[in-house]
Amino acid sequence: MVSIRSVHGSARLLLDVTRGVTRITEQTHRTIVREVNPLNRLRDIVGVTPEEPQGPQGHTYRVIQSTLSLLQKGVDMSFDTVAVEDTRSPAPQNMNVAAALNGVCGDHLEASNNPLAINMHFRNSRGEIVQSDSEHIRARLPGASSRLVVLVHGLCLSHDYWKGHNEGNLGTELERAHGITPLYLTYNTGKHISINGRELSQQLQNMIEAWPVDVEELILVGHSMGGLVIRSACWYASEPELSWIDHLKKAVYLGSPHHGAALAKASHLLTSTMKKFRYARPFALGQHTSAGIKDLRHGNLLDEDWEGINPDDFSPDARKPVPLPAGTRHFFIAAAVGNKTTDFTSAIIGDLLVRLDSAKGHHRDELKRLSIRPQDCRVFENLNHLDLLDNKVVHDQVLEWLA
User: Which residues form the GPI inositol-deacylase PGAP1-like alpha/beta domain (predicted)?
Assistant: First the structure.
């Protein structure tokens, strides 16, 4: 069953998309009108900004936008009267759709108070929400141990993706093999990585303080963007001096784009190129993607990496170097779709989304390079980016490292 909140959020998002398409159509229409006006061409030659075209088309677009705004107000008023009656949890398939939408436009969903926006929270292996309250933890996690692992998913995914195609998952395997209690983080992947990192840092602190037994060891496992959120959280733990970082003994990164994702770089290049041409500029849809996706171009971890910078303009990698936190052992896993990781194709393509050098933390700049021991890094052949979530050889390696 689809929840009322999902229907409400979907209706609002559909109206937002319609408004966006209307704006693109209007921009294209205005460009064409300016081009066919010989006076505007003359102004271009002498360096004078062309006047905005006036006429019935401008009035028509204003009427459309006003109508859509009225429709949204009506939708909000209608659903507000019944939303309090809807207490059902979303079905897994609905949760996964919401997670994908949050990855693409999650920052917009949050800014517009859309019910589809995901709030950061933890879940247990049964998919139940676990609040940072001692009694609630005991009820949701009976027999919680002193060893805790938190699994952090990647862009457009949710906690449900750790299960993969098998009955078990990495979290339950760690619990069976080593007695480590698993928690699964769910969060809005469309928000800036630094914002999610800061929030995760505080939520880890709250969870450690509420844990029913003394925590001897905290382990963090991040897939793709999840690994960057983990590194950001570790950095922000030092600002207010949160004590959870003292419990962090090991961290595992599965295909994390420490120095950017190839697909995000290609999307940015296409967007910046299209913006240089008048007729193509309105259709440069990459400029409308989420802040989280844009952070993946270089692998931004901190607020300083994106504040005051137009992410759609061509700009060099000006990230502040973020070293791996001392006192924690860090493990890296990368994948290549080819038969040999030494092949040129495998090195360039990597796991289809993340190149090998980025997943292993390599960088030409020594300040940005992540220093790890060779035995703490593994590269697997014939695996793609999502295979890292649910693959026996990957799980076996993580189980060995965390034994």
Answer: 147-269
Tokens of 54: 């006036």
pLDDT at 9: 59
Query: How many angstroms separate the CA atoms of 273 and 268, rounded?
Result: 8
What is the CATH code for 121-260+319-401?
A: 3.40.50.1820
Which pair of tokens denotes residue 358? 């980025």
Give the residue among 388, 389, 386, 363 at the shortest CA–CA distance from 378.
388
312 within 8 A of 287, measured Cβ to Cβ: yes
Strand, helix or coil at 156?
coil
208 contact partners, CB below 8 Å, separation of at least 6: 215, 218, 243, 244, 247
Could you give the CA distance from residue 151 to residue 124 in angstroms, rounded to a whole number?
10
Both tokens of 201, joined, read: 């840092």
pLDDT digits (tens, 9 = 90+) for 343-362: 877 878 899 999 999 999 99
Cα dist from 23 to 62, 73, 374, whole Å: 10, 19, 52
CA–CA separation, 368 and 323 (whole Å): 8
Termini Cα distance of the chain: 41
Evaluate the CA torsion angle 93, 225, 356, 284 in order and state its sign. Answer: positive
Average pLDDT over residues 70-96: 60
Cα distances from 56 to residues 26, 30, 240, 284, 324, in angstroms, run: 12, 12, 57, 27, 59
